[in-house]
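Repro:
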Amino acid sequence: MNRKVIYMLTLAVFFTATSELVIAGILNVLADQLHVSVALAGQLITVYSLAFAIGTPVIVSLTARMGRKKLLLLAMLVFIVGNLVSYVSSSFTLLIVSRMILGVSSGVLLVAAFSAAAKMVPPEKIGSTMGTIILGFSSAMILGVPLGIALTHIFSWQMIFLFLAAGSFIIMICMMLMLPEIQGDAPVSFSRQFTILGNPIILTALLLVLFREAGNSILFTYLSSFLDTILHRSASDIGIIMLSFGIAGAIGSRIGGSAVDKWGSVPVMVISMIFHVVTLLLLPLAIHLFPLAIALLSLWIISMFIMGPATQSYFIAKAPQSSNLIISLNISVTQIGLASGASVGGMAATLNSTVLYNPWVASVALLIAFLAAIVSFQKSKMTQAISVKKGYNL
């Protein structure tokens, strides 16, 4: 039963991730039909990320004691409403409002899904379970975005959101029938929960997430441009390559989840970060050897998705009493990192008049993330040693 429920939650994440990612794939169509510039249409992505980043931790904290089933159903209902608002949107302003609704509801649903899953499986299975749920994101890259683009070309961009609303309604019904009752966190005040940020282990781990996601976004946002202008691939080639990267991400999620269960989150995070930095440092040097460049990009994508379940497991282990809040903060920081990385990547491309050096700019951010990770791990070791010593003295 738990396995079916986990797959159902993964499918719910697939729908929310598709609602986030699909905008980039149809940005030119939206700009044209809504009579706005592409730059202004791009703010649909920014608004979503900000609503996700700001609204999620607040709502998650206010609903901490609510049962996970009730919270998941509520989040899914609001997500459906957001998609229906997008479907009927005839103006840019109304579409902005719908993106805010979708951002907050997607964030709350994702946190509740991680929290519910962590409480339904034994501790030794948390890593692989997180990896399974994160598959929803890579599946959105592989299937959701291409499907959204196809619906736009065959019907209209509004049909994407009608599809998401219909699919989400089916998932909501399945949740009502299949989800067990799962308790929320123990009642803790909003202000007390946020004192968790005073914990240097958590704070430095959040800095790790911020700079890692920013570093990845510096290149990932402009990956199509890199394949086009630097590796000289055609539009059809880029489509196939992006599909293969989505598959690589799915493989990375599975590897990461299993590896965390076997070796723990810290070794997996360290190895992943090393691959992050090394692959991006080497990439600009390998542009004249296409197979090598694609191999490096694939390793980077795999290591990116390996990191997901490891990071979630690390946060849950370090702050079990505030797992919902810390997961929501992690996801919010992720969104801020993605948005800031896209901006930095754009500035780097403008300054250099090319995206060739974006991997090197990204590697700088990832090195900072690596340093933050080392500090967090060292602080964790010191805390554990002090706890053991106190226990021994008692």
